[in-house]
Amino acid sequence: MTHGTGDGQGADGQFSRIWRLLDGHVASGRLPGYVTAVRIRGETAIRAGGRTAIEADSPPMAPDTLFRIASVTKPIGGVLTMALVDDGLLALDDPAARWLPELDRPRVLVTPAAGLDATTDAVRPITVRHLITCTAGWGAIMQPTPLQRAMIDRGVFPSPLHPPMTGDEFVAALAELPLAFQPGEGFLYDTPIDVLGVLLARAAGRPLSELFAERILGPLGMADTAFHAVDPARLATAYTPAGDGLELLDPPDGEYARPPRFEELSSGLVSTAGDVLRFFTAMADGGAPVVDREALARVTADALTAEQRRAAVPIVEPGSSWAMATGVDVEAAQPWMAPGRWGWAGGTGTTAYVDPSRDTICVLLTQRGMGGPRDGFDDFFAAVAAAAA
Domain 66-224+249-301, what fold? Predict the structure, then answer.
């Protein structure tokens, strides 16, 4: 079953190849369901297909179905950070220890794979910039190392579900561990953004949810977006790939049905395709009323060196780089890529991108988790680029 709004010529015209692709994934069983929102040269369409769970009697997807958007939270958090920077609350080159004294004297491993006691002094403080660009020194270590094991054991390794602790407890546990590299000299994904979220809340003296509501969600009318499901009855069941099928990750009445102990800037939001489209549409149109064009340009500018981009593979794919809590294309390494195209994907099966060169915005929310960095949305991006052509 499908539902559409704002189809214009899209249902039978430029959007039709996108709908065929996604409906095909539902028919094949790869996706239980989806909601997508696409804008091509000013024309917008929202489409829902499949069901909210794998059972045949599950409710059909609807345009207002809620999803755990995971790391699609990151670009929204990056814009929030820049709005607070422009307010003068903090600066990108401020030491993080100004608000997070736990990070005042970090130790650094002599090599990323070294034992936890093989450390040296940090040669510079961890800054806000290091956190937002994922160059602080902690993160999603892809190969088995003592630091990876220690992060897992302490519950601070990236996960599709909430850490079993508060934000303050998260920072305290992480601060006991050494950095994998000197601040600003490498790239490790995810964890620094969660640390940044705790920093923002302390700097403002208010919960992250209040900052989002005041600076992002309220001004843009994103009434369905929060750090938990505003209506659990509309929340899709979340799954992870398992063999040839799917395994339950989180039911509608699970972790995301109630406010979390830790509001994660890296991956904590629940939203709808329409709300996510509202955010990325505002950004594509210049950033107002949240930030101005200059601030948005800083958010979406490549922040990594060539060496850091190599270190970021496979999280950041060839042809892409990392900006301020968002991915950004630096070359057209694939047909759907373009320099300046920016956005990100979430491990729970979500993605959102703005492509200024093609004048497109695309949002796809599914409940099929990604099996890895390469288990993503390439065919969807290709269909959107072809539709724009």
Answer: Beta-lactamase (3.40.710)
For the chain, 389 residues long, give each residue's pLDDT as a single digit of tens. 334 444 434 444 789 999 999 999 999 999 999 999 999 999 999 999 999 999 999 999 999 999 999 999 999 999 999 999 999 999 999 999 999 999 999 999 999 999 999 999 999 999 999 999 999 999 999 999 999 999 999 999 999 999 999 999 999 999 999 999 999 999 999 999 999 999 999 999 999 999 999 999 999 999 999 999 999 999 999 999 998 899 999 999 999 999 999 999 999 999 999 999 999 999 999 999 999 999 999 999 999 999 999 999 989 999 999 999 999 999 999 999 999 999 999 999 999 999 999 999 999 999 999 987 678 899 999 999 999 99
SS in 3 state form for the chain? Answer: CEEEECCCCCCCCCCHHHHHHHHHHHHHCCCCEEEEEEEECCEEEEEEEEECCCCCCCCECCCCCEEECHHHHHHHHHHHHHHHHHHCCCCCCCEHHHCCHHHCCCEEECCCCCCCCCEEECCCCCEHHHHHCCCCCCCCCCCCCHHHHHHHHCCCCCCCCCCCCCHHHHHHHHHCCCECCCCCCCCCCCHHHHHHHHHHHHHHCCCHHHHHHHHHHHHHCCCCCECCCCCHHHECCEEEEECCEEEEEECCCCHHHCCCCCCCCCCCCEECHHHHHHHHHHHHCCCCCCCCHHHHHHHCCCCCCHHHHHHHCCCCCCCEEECCCCEEECCCCCCCCCCCCEEEEECCCEEEEEECCCCEEEEEEECECCCCCCCCCHHHHHHHHHHHC
Residue boundaries of the structural domains of the chain: 66-224+249-301
Give the separation between CA 219 and CA 299, rounded to whole angstroms. Answer: 19
Q: Which two tokens stand for residue 259?
A: 């406010």
